[in-house]
Fold this sequence. Notes:
By secondary structure, the protein is of the alpha+beta class. The chain contains 17 helices and 18 strands. It folds into 2 domains: 142 residues, CATH 2.40.50.140; 259 residues, Bira Bifunctional Protein, Domain 2 (BirA Bifunctional Protein, domain 2, 2-Layer Sandwich).
Amino acid sequence: xxxxxxxxxxxxxxxxxxxxxxxPYPALTRRSHSVAEAVEKFDExxxxxREVVLAGRIMAKREMGGVVFFDINDGSTSSPQVSAxxxxxxxxxxxxxxxxxxxxxxIDIGDFVEVKGTLFKTKAGEKTLLTTHYSLLTKAxxxxxxxxxxxxxxxxxxxxxxxxxxxxxxxxxxxxKRAVFWNAVREFHIKNDFLEVETPVLETTVGGADANxxxxxxxxxxxxxxxxxxxxxxxxxRLMVAGFNKTFEIGRIFRNEGMSVEHAQDYTQCxxxxxxxxxxxxxxxxxxxxxYVAEKTFGTLxxxxxxxxxxxxADWPLIDYAEEIKxxxxxxxxxxxxxxxxxxxxxxxxxxxxxxxxARLIDSLWKHCxxxxxxxxxxxxxxxxxxxxSKTSSKNPNVTERFHFIIAGSEIGQGYSELxxxxxxxxxxxxxxxxxxxxxxxxxxxxEDFVEALEYGMPPTAGHGFSERLFSFLMNKPIxxxxxxxxxxxx
Length: 491
């Protein structure tokens, strides 16, 4: 039967239900236990003949003369060992002929029902509820897809995520693990005395990262604003100026850029700032954070990611940015001309904009090199020209006190000794402005208010940032698949 015909038939059932005085969408259920509780305490409840009231969606239905077996699921499982599904038996001689016939006429797979009765085991050993009374809670107008044939297409699964979660335990597990992941991130920061803060999502000047923002208009103030591209980096630094010692934020950020298995346009990120600390303090802290979060979320520190075997519990070697590029490509970034770097990028078949400045060209070289590194490893000594917000190294004026965590060929988190010299910061903003004027949309605009805040004095400060890309890597899945409702283009 065509989908439209099925829907029409179900709407007719809704009309008939209302005519016989049955509300197909009541507000109240008298459920006494979740299905998981009933399954967990099955022996206790069945031995005492205790009457229970359960509720859930009908997932399967088997009619045999004067009896009907059906499965209900309420999504209440408390562990992999405890099911959210239970079999229900409705018998004509138990509920009466009229109610039994109504069940057969009006109740379908996909509907939500409430069932009251006692628990027992069938001859086959199946845990079952013998119902003495049932009621309809929600009449579904569209049929659920067949378990083994529906939603095979990835795009359709992501578009109709709610159906994917019904039939795909792995997808449902992602939602649950995602919550554990971010709770563990929060726990680790709080137990290390970081104060959780919230900073503006709408900004008049974007900052804190090299990225292209989303732009919108604020009607009440009649001005253009931007959705933030970092989790409050420049705002949290203002809090360091104000005398707060440790802050962090877990929040949504937005970048108007390309999509890939690693990149999304809106995603969750954690950023933290630590006064009187430097980038070495921060990478040691963040390394322990990753281990804590992985253990809490997955119960292990060992992962298979992009064909790399990753052990977060092993040593994380330090990798020098320029030395690694020279080792892999033969290019000395301190001496090579733009022309030489472009020639090497062409040889490596790396895409880049022919008009790109040296900072972007060097970054493209590095992106080739990092793909070869399994890690976990800590990248240090990033050139100053590609790192506008981090402090210059006291050992080498050409590099910054910045780190990246390299896991499975990608950058999964970073941090800095933050720049707190307002004169140096102004000069770097001005250099970024020139890059913007030359056509680099990701270069950072001048933020006069932030520079002024720095002029009041910010103590030595370290910062870090990492996003849900870490979770997607630990799950070994594309980032869209670990988002609960990823952005999809309308049909």
